[in-house]
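Q: How would the structure tokens look for this protein?
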Amino acid sequence: MPSPQEPPARHAGAPGTYHCGMSFLRRRSATPAGPDFDVLAMDPGDWPGNLGAGLLPAPDGSCQGVYLRYDLFGGRGPAMIIGNLPEGSPAREVTEGEVPFEVGQLLLALENDEEVTVVGVEDMPVMQGDNLLIVRRLKLSESRISCVQFDRSDNVLVTIAAWDRPITDDLYALLKPLPAELFQQG
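A: Here is the predicted structure in token form.
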């Protein structure tokens, strides 16, 4: 474990400030705040496994994003990560070909240190309830990872990364707003 002065090790497939192990999500302030936006995710009651949530803290204590990690029962490991990153979140800033934050977190959780890059992007329309979403499907160099992104009307970027299972239109029907109060700390 690095000392507080050392930066955490970077993941080969996900360089950058926010692309390190999940433990960095621990809050450093005495009175941490939660997000000021609802989180679009699957309700924990709709998932047949374990759910973990993490907040991305800014130095000022504000929330720069929320991600949810859905693990399967039976110790079969993480199956999906859903991130909600508001406008201005540093975790949204990726260079061309770099994987999104959520893909980096999925690879870290799987202890997979393979170099993964984005090799293509395809836009497609998807209905989520009464809303039409323009979903970006990211094609990755690791074909066992499925990844999609879309922008909400409140400028929160939602990214879904799944391991070894395709992301189908059925998943969008399961997404619902979870209230920000669920993610308050302190």
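The CA atoms of residues 137 and 148 lie 4 Å apart.

The first helix runs from residue 101 to 109.

Upvote if useful.
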